[in-house]
Every structure is written in structure tokens, then in C-alpha cells.
């Protein structure tokens, strides 16, 4: 399915084959605007101000646009073909299955924008684009693989309707922002070409030679090459410092850094799941709940400030009803009917234990406690917890959106499960939800103790024990695993998923039960075991053959949460095998095209075989992040 988009100030429209994804792409009940953020600490205000500065790939819609904050000045690179209406300005990471006109291979880069590299292929042209910063100035090197009939257009732009002025003279671009004047110089002379599709100040260059671009002063090609080589060497040194984990680090850092953008409306730096998802939502960004918490955890390995920013911003999206929503975006507000899996406290506690800044806990504690208290009030059925959907403003309830709250939108676990009309929840005691919630209670209790909130800590521990007793009742002695339970007829559900291993995360199973769960299910080739692990539906489930989203495909977060679950028990061989198989799956794709996929085929290991597996989606890197935890590089 194709969706037309006009090119922001660039003349001719470009058609983008967008992802038509199951579930979360359709918002359901939304509010008109995101909930206002209540920032408490001066440390966090200063952190966002520091992050929101300098040159970087801040603009979501083009990875070859270099933007300067706080001015919002942009150097936009575009391509036009001679004697043609072709004009490429918006450049997004893509895979062949999406049928975009350009192909982008994202390369080595620093998360602070001090060095970036990528390869852009477009209608027979192939460009290597490298950038570097030094002393507040920007350097860009564009290298064409061969002489071309196309033009490279360099535009001066102002993003996000910021105040200022831009213009072009005979041989340079410039921007004026109060007392500051930014000048952009080139190593080649521009050509006169009036009809290239650009509607902003620009200069046009033939794609026949290497082109250097610099700000501040006119640099020679040799000077620009030198700065870029120095910055590249610095980044290579940073990567190589991780030794045998250098390649996993490079991949994880790359996908997180390329997806880090500036949200001008809220004056903040954030790391959404991918640029394509942001583009599809049409208004700059979309943050998804557990996805963003996972991103913050990975970022904590190498960029504390970005880790804090993403964890704080997702938590600050809390709704008036008291839950951190499924999603937040400018255009569609927040989901007012549903949350997502409660992983926030668990991840925030681990980040805190890595970096030990108490103000970080103080910034998010009230919202985390409100969210924790929300679950038993609004998702309780017969003393268990179940996924649900209810919009208090409209009275709307939705069986479909209840599934979306699980984060496992079309999982066969929820096939045929009715919606309870009184509680507005699925009539299913959910093992995964109960386990994650118990973990949330215990993590938040530890946070409360760290902050001296002893009464809150006691309350949270009591709640953890209450739901632990309910989870214990879901053990199925016959099959040797904890099972979801239908609350309309009392029967154990016959469907399994990796979430059935999560009681290990809550520390509920006995050692003997844990051994049975691994022997009879984790290592069962008819269910979860195999060359590629762990499928979201067992291999013997009829839904496995669907190979459609959560119906059989492999997902980074499921492997990751299963790994965290195994860490609570003496399971070193199982953890080692899960890490090794996850790494093999990840690099089967990364080494092919630098793809970090939203999900993967559990039979072939392919990421790009279906349209609903974004190829630059940051939680795919959870497949290699586990090893950093296992080797003690992060808590």
C-alpha cells in the first residue's frame, strides 16, 4: 500500500511505500495533545539543554541533513537528475522490500554527531557521505563512485519554523540567527541550474568529483579529509575498545544514534524506534512505551545522558488516568485507553545502579509509583492481572486494543479470548503481565528505599507478594510450565509464548520448576529450541507458520526478557546458548546490509523477508545487548 507525501519545500512529491503494520500503528483512542511534562530537577533541565546543541542528524526525515542546535539551521543535501523531474530530498533508512527509490546503508558514526558515515544509492548513483565536527564547525565529504549525470544540491534551511534567515550568494550558503551568522563553503564552484526542484536557497554541483563542505571558513579538500579522518579514527578507537564485543557495540550504537532526533515542539532530544515509524506517524516522532525503556537501557552502556533522556521522557508521558501510555506523539497525542508492559521501574533501577545519579530516580519516582498503583485498580480480574482497554472520556472499550496493551499485538495467545464487560480486560490471567508486574513492584520498592520512602517500599513489597501468590496458582504440573488461565471457564490456555518463562524474572518458580521449564520447553525443538531462537509462538503452534509479526517471528525484547529471567537462576548454559543464537541471528542480517530488524523469521533468520519488519529498529539490538550484561559491562 502506498501513501503520498509532499516534500517539505521541495517541489515535486515523492511517494513513500510505508509500513502497514499490525496493531500499534493504528492508534485507537487518542488525546489531542501529549500530556504536559512535569520536570522536577534542575539536573534534568540542564541535561536536555546540553543534549540539544551542536551539529548532528537531528532532523527525522533525512539522514543526510546536518542540523545545528539550538539555531535549527540545516544543510540539506538533495539529488536531482538532469533533464528530469526527479528530486530526492527526504532520505530514510530503508530495505528493498519497501520499494523506496533510494537505498541507504548506515555506517560507522558517533552518537554525538562528531562523525557519521553512510552510503546512498539512488537510480544508478552511489555516494559515500561522511561528516565530522570540530570546534563547533561542520565538515562534510561527498564522494561519488563514478561521474554522474545527476546534480548534488546543497540547501540552506531552517527547521521546525525556528526564527532566523537563510540565503545563498554566488559561492556559499548562509544563515543568520540574531548576532550569529553561519556560512557554508564548498571546495568546488557551483553551476547555474535554475530548474532543480528546490524552493529554498541552494547551490548546485555536478556529481563528477569529490565535494567538500565546511562551515566557518573555506577549507581545502585536504583539510576536510583530514578532519574527517581524525574523527573517524577516534570513533574506530572507541569501538575497538570493546574487544570481542566491538562489532556488537558498533551495531547497537549505530542504530540508536541514527534514530536519535530532536523534538522541537518539546525542546528535547529523544530516540524513537525508527525514522520510518516517525515518518509514518506524520508529525515528527512517535515514542512507544516499552521500546523506549529498552532503548534507554542500551544507551546506558555508552551514553548516560541519552539513557536518562529517553527513560525520563517516556515516563513523563504519563496520562491523567495514571498510566504510562502505549504511545506518545505530537500528531496523535497519547493512547488514552491502554498502557504497555510494566518494564519501566526494572530498567530504570538497572540504569541507576550503573550510574548512581539519585536525581534521576527523583525525577521519575512519582510517575512510576502512580503507574504501579494503576495496574491493580484498572487491570484486576478475580485477583489476577489481565490486559485491557478502556477510555474513560468516551467509554470506549476494545478487545483489539487490549491485545495491543500486551505489546504482542496479534499473538495467538489471545485468539478467541473474550473481553470481560465489567473489568474491560481480556478474560485471561496473563503469566507475562503478572511476572513483569511483580518485578516492577520489587524494582520500585528498591528505588523507594534508595529515596528513603520506607512506607512506599513496604506497600510495594506487599503488593509483589500478593500477586506472587496468584502467579503460583498458574503453575501447570502436567506440562511443567506456568500457563495463562482463562477466567471465563477456568481452563489453562493451550497457547504458549516466551512470556511463559517470565515467572523466572519474578523469582517465583522453585529450582525444580525452573529445571522443568527449561528441559521441557526451552530446549524443546518442537516448541522454542532451534538454530534461531526464540520464536514468539512455539514451532508446533499452527500460528507459527503465519510468520506474521508476533505469530512465530523472533523479537529482540522477547529474547531479552527471557535472558533477564534466566539470570535469576543457575542457568549459565541456557544463557550462553541464547546469547550465541541471538548473536548469530543478528549478524546474519547486520553483515548483509547493516540491518537491525524489528523482528526476524524463525526458520530462515531473515529480517527483511516481510514488510512489517523495519530494518532500522533499535530494539533489534537487544539480541546483542544481552552479552554486555552477561560479561559485566553493564548491570
UniProtKB/TrEMBL annotation:
Recall the GO molecular function terms of this protein's record. Answer: Glc3Man9GlcNAc2 oligosaccharide glucosidase activity
Keywords assigned: Glycosidase, Hydrolase
One GO biological process from the UniProt record?
oligosaccharide metabolic process
Question: Is Hydrolase among the key words of this record?
Answer: yes
Protein known as: Mannosylglycerate hydrolase MGH1-like glycoside hydrolase domain-containing protein
Q: What is the lineage of its organism?
A: Bacteria, Pseudomonadati, Bacteroidota, Sphingobacteriia, Sphingobacteriales
Fetch the InterPro entries from UniProt: 6-hairpin_glycosidase_sf, 6hp_glycosidase-like_sf, Glycoside_hydrolase_63, MGH1-like_GH
Q: Does the keyword Hydrolase apply?
A: yes
- Where does the Mannosylglycerate hydrolase MGH1-like glycoside hydrolase domain start and stop, copy by copy? 287-619
Membrane-spanning ranges:
none
Q: Which family does it belong to?
A: Belongs to the glycosyl hydrolase 63 family.
Amino acid at each position: 500500500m502506498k501513501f503520498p507525501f509532499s516534500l517539505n519545500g521541495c517541489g515535486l512529491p515523492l511517494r513513500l511505500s510505508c509500513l502497514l503494520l499490525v496493531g500499534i500503528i493504528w492508534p485507537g483512542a487518542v488525546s489531542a495533545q501529549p500530556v504536559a511534562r512535569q520536570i522536577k530537577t534542575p539536573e534534568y533541565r540542564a541535561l536536555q539543554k546540553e543534549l540539544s546543541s551542536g551539529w548532528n542528524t537531528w532532523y527525522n526525515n533525512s539522514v543526510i541533513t546536518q542540523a545545528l542546535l539550538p539555531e535549527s539551521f540545516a544543510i540539506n543535501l538533495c539529488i536531482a537528475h538532469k533533464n528530469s523531474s526527479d528530486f530526492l530530498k527526504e532520505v530514510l533508512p530503508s530495505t528493498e522490500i519497501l520499494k523506496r527509490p533510494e537505498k541507504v546503508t548506515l555506517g560507522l558514526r558517533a552518537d554525538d554527531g562528531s562523525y557519521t558515515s553512510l552510503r546512498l544509492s539512488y537510480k544508478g548513483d552511489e555516494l559515500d557521505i561522511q561528516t565530522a565536527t570540530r570546534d563547533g564547525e561542520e565538515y562534510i565529504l561527498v564522494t561519488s563512485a563514478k561521474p554522474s549525470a545527476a546534480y548534488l544540491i546543497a540547501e540552506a534551511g531552517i527547521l521546525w519554523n525556528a526564527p532566523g534567515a537563510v540565503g545563498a550568494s554566488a559561492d556559499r550558503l548562509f544563515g543568520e540567527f540574531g548576532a550569529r551568522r553561519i556560512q557554508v563553503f564548498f571546495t568546488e564552484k557551483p553551476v547555474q541550474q535554475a530548474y532543480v526542484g528546490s524552493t529554498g536557497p541552494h547551490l548546485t554541483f555536478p556529481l563528477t568529483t569529490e565535494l567538500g563542505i565546511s562551515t566557518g571558513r573555506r577549507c581545502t579538500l585536504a583539510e576536510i579529509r583530514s578532519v574527517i579522518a581524525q574523527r573517524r579514527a577516534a570513533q574506530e578507537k572507541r569501538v575497538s575498545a570493546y574487544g570481542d564485543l566491538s562489532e556488537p557495540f558498533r551495531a547497537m550504537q549505530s542504530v540508536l544514534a541514527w534514530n536519535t532526533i530532536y523534538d522541537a515542539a518539546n525542546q528535547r532530544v529523544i530516540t524513537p524506534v525508527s525514522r520510518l515509524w516517525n515518518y509514518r506517524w506524520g508529525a515528527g516522532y512517535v515514542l512507544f512505551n516499552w521500546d523506549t525503556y529498552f532503548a534507554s537501557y542500551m544507551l546506558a552502556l555508552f551514553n548516560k545522558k541519552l539513557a536518562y533522556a529517553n527513560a525520563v521522557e517516556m515516563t513523563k508521558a504519563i496520562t491523567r488516568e495514571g498510566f504510562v501510555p502505549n504511545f506518545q506523539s505530537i500528531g496523535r497525542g497519547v493512547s488514552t485507553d491502554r498502557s504497555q508492559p510494566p518494564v519501566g521501574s526494572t530498567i530504570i533501577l538497572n540504569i541507576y545502579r550503573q550510574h548512581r545519579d539519585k536525581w534521576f530516580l527523583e525525577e521519575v519516582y512519582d510517575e512510576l509509583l502512580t503507574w504501579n498503583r494503576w495496574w491493580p485498580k484498572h487491570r484486576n480480574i478475580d485477583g489476577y492481572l489481565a490486559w485491557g482497554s478502556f477510555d474513560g472520556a468516551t467509554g470506549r472499550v476494545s478487545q483489539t486494543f487490549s491485545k495491543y496493551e500486551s505489546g504482542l499485538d496479534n499473538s495467538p495467545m489471545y485468539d478467541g479470548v473474550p473481553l470481560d464487560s465489567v473489568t474491560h480486560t481480556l478474560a485471561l490471567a496473563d503469566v507475562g503481565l503478572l511476572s513483569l508486574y511483580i518485578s516492577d513492584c520489587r524494582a520500585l520498592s528498591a528505588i523507594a528505599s534508595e529515596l528513603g520512602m520506607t512506607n512506599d517500599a513496604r506497600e510495594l513489597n506487599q503488593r509483589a507478594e500478593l500477586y506472587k501468590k496468584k502467579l503460583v496458582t498458574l503453575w501447570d504440573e502436567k506440562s511443567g510450565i506456568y500457563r495463562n488461565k482463562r477466567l471465563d471457564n477456568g481452563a489453562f490456555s493451550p497457547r504458549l509464548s516466551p512470556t511463559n518463562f517470565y515467572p523466572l524474572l519474578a523469582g517465583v518458580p522453585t529450582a525444580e520448576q525452573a529445571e522443568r521449564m527449561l528441559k521441557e520447553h526451552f530446549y524443546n525443538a518442537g516448541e522454542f529450541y532451534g538454530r534461531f531462537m526464540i520464536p514468539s509462538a512455539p514451532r508446533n503452534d499452527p500460528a507459527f507458520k503465519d510468520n506474521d509479526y508476533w505469530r512465530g517471528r523472533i523479537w529482540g525484547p522477547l529474547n531479552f526478557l527471557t535472558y533477564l529471567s534466566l539470570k535469576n537462576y543457575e542457568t549459565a548454559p541456557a544463557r550462553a546458548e541464547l546469547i550465541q543464537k541471538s548473536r548469530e541471528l543478528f549478524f546474519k542480517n547486520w553483515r548483509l546490509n547493516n540491518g537491525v530488524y524489528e523482528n526476524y523469521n524463525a526458520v530462515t533468520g531473515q529480517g527483511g523477508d516481510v514488510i512489517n519488519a523495519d530494518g532500522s529498529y533499535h530494539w533489534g539490538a537487544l539480541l546483542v545487548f544481552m552479552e554486555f550484561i552477561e560479561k559485566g559491562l553493564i548491570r
